[in-house]
Specification:
Elements lengths: L3 H4 L4 H16 L1 E3 L3 E5 L7 E4 L2 E10 L10 E5 L15 E4 L5 E8 L3 E6 L7 E6 L6 E6 L1 E5 L4 E4 L36 E6 L11 H4 L7 E11 L2 E9 L6 E7 L4 E4 L1 E4 L8 E3 L10 E3 L18 H18 L15 H16 L2 E3 L10 E6 L12 E6 L3 H10 L15 H4 L35
Parallel strand pairs: 1-3, 10-17
Antiparallel strand pairs: 2-9, 3-8, 4-7, 4-9, 5-6, 5-8, 11-12, 12-15, 13-16, 14-15, 16-18, 19-20, 21-23, 22-23
Helix pairs in contact: 4-5, 5-6
This protein binds 2-acetamido-2-deoxy-beta-D-glucopyranose (NAG) (5 copies).
One 2-acetamido-2-deoxy-beta-D-glucopyranose binds next to loops.
Length: 466
């Protein structure tokens, strides 16, 4: 407050204004910078004070209702002359427009500001976040990653974080990762991510797409295991192994990235109850593999296969091939002589690993739930391609490797290795999914029928080894 002697010197009209502002300020809540305020009843007066700052990001999240019901509207001003920002506009009044329950505004507040809210439905709860950095609430552009499912299980991954610092090998010490590479230490303070899985029929996508709204939904199924896994150089992810799902059901999955940020939804379908393959993941020599292979259920109590219980008949030849390939590759003067201006021995080894894993570990598909044009092949275990699968695991439908896993290796490796792929115009389609990512024309990149090997709706057309 101004000292009384100074107030008395002010012109009468201004004094009135000042009194009005002061009394309003006494009943208005000040939003703390760096905090989230949860409001569960329509505020009266419907205004909040924002402290002065060089820059503030004010974010809103609605915690109740569906995306198509009318919600509250938020108006904000960074002007010292507007006391009650609202739909009638005014000097520097901005509406925070909400999209699927989220909205934010970032700008300068040299003399503070006011946030006004109108049209608050009787049972609405919402959060207001104020930060000096990025908005606290966010609908992140990233999404969960679906590995694969069986009739009642699924493997899902969080978006990546904490990418490891992996230095490309350099001459004269050009050392490629060994067949079983050493894995860097996992981050000791991983993010607090929460997986939400719900049958798509529950309609989570029509709820407000905010962390506070989705958190109220009980996730379906059981997260039987949660582990950190380094699938690729993009970073660590949580790997969630889910059990207790229902066969042939479409599910929606979100990841709550912390208390206030949420990913886009993805969808996946469980297989029919006759599906008899088992999930495999967490193989250091095939780090990106997380799908169903034609193996019987693993020995109890394991729920899936990983490097601790993978049959040696499958793992040993794969590791031996990788070792031999790497030995042959490094007879080339990697890092000193160059066979290409764009690719290196490390790219060759990496693409070969992906290809070898995809062709050695057959991926099972379910004829009932696979997308119509997927590259499916009725197959028999043991297979001609990999005798390591135990005899007697019977028939299954194979999702053929994408031809692009082969052509990527062909492009990344020096010619002397003699790595070749079948040509689309000859017999490639007998052993590969052809024409999904790249067109079916020999050597042409892009232009495939789907442009993708899999999508965010749980469809997979060929096995990318990823
Ligand atoms: C308020 O924000 C607007 C838009 O960012 C900006 O142009 C204006 O200068 C700001 N007003 C003040 C007083 O900083
Ligand atoms: C060569 O590189 C490898 C892997 O980066 C490292 O472990 C090894 O110590 C290096 N050797 C020498 C002689 O620098
Ligand atoms: C992670 O987030 C959940 C849900 O918001 C919370 O219950 C839990 O306490 C958090 N855990 C940590 C370690 O912060
Ligand atoms: C799952 O649900 C989504 C959203 O309704 C839909 O787009 C997708 O096609 C469904 N997938 C299957 C396999 O039914
Ligand atoms: C790798 O090389 C060793 C030694 O030459 C050989 O015995 C083995 O069969 C090779 N492995 C594969 C999978 O070809």
């Amino acid at each position: 407050m101004l000292p009384l002697d100074r107030i008395s010197m002010l012109p009468a009209a201004l004094l009135l204004l000042l009194n009005a502002a002061l009394s309003a300020a006494q009943t208005r809540t000040t939003l703390q910078t760096g905090f989230v305020t949860t409001i569960s009843t329509a505020p009266n007066p419907p205004f909040f004070i924002l402290a002065a700052a060089d820059q503030l990001a004010v974010s809103i999240a609605l915690c109740k209702g569906t995306t198509d019901t009318p919600g509250p509207r938020f108006f904000l001003t960074n002007s010292s002359t507007t006391a009650s920002p609202g739909p009638d506009g005014g000097d520097n009044v901005f509406e925070i427009v909400l999209d699927q329950g989220h909205g934010s505004w970032t700008g300068t507040f040299p003399s503070g500001g006011v946030l006004g809210v109108t049209n608050v439905p009787p049972t609405m709860t919402f959060e207001i976040g104020v930060s000096t950095g990025v908005p606290i609430h966010e609908s992140a552009a990233v999404a969960a990653l679906f590995g694969d499912s069986t009739a009642t299980q699924a493997i899902l991954f969080s978006p990546p974080f904490s990418a490891p610092d992996i230095e490309a090998p350099k001459y004269p010490n050009y050392t490629l990762p060994s067949a079983i590479p050493s894995i860097p230490a996992a981050p000791s303070d991983p993010k607090n991510y929460t997986l939400i899985v719900s049958p798509t029929s529950n309609g989570l996508t029509s709820m407000q797409q905010t962390s506070c709204a989705l958190r109220t939904q009980r996730s379906t199924g059981v997260v039987a295991a949660q582990n950190l896994w380094l699938r690729d150089t993009r970073g660590w992810r949580f790997e969630w192994f889910m059990t207790g799902l229902t066969p042939k059901t479409n599910y929606t999955a979100y990841v709550l990235l912390d208390d206030y940020k949420v990913t886009k939804p993805i969808f996946f379908t469980t297989k029919s109850s006759s599906f008899s393959c088992s999930l495999v993941s967490r193989l250091p020599y095939c780090p990106s593999i997380a799908y169903a292979v034609p193996l019987p259920p693993p020995p109890s109590p394991a729920l899936s296969y990983d490097s601790t219980n993978m049959p040696a008949s499958l793992a040993d030849p794969l590791i031996s091939s990788l070792t031999n390939f790497t030995t042959t590759l490094t007879t080339f003067a990697c890092g000193r002589d160059f066979y290409s201006p764009i690719v290196t021995c490390a790219d060759c080894q990496r693409t070969y690993r992906t290809w070898l894993c995809a062709v050695s570990l057959s991926r099972c598909a379910d004829t009932d739930t696979a997308p119509p044009s997927a590259a499916l092949l009725p197959s028999q275990s043991p297979q001609t391609r990999n005798a390591g699968f135990a005899a007697g695991s019977g028939t299954f439908t194979q999702l053929l490797p994408c031809l692009e896993t082969c052509t990527a290796t062909d492009r990344a490796c020096p010619n002397f290795l003699g790595f070749r792929c079948p040509l689309p115009r000859f017999n490639a389609a007998q052993s590969y999914g052809v024409g999904f990512i790249d067109s079916g024309r020999d050597g042409e990149m892009g232009g495939g029928s789907t442009g993708l090997w899999a999508d965010d709706y749980g469809n997979a057309w060929c096995n990318s080894g990823w």
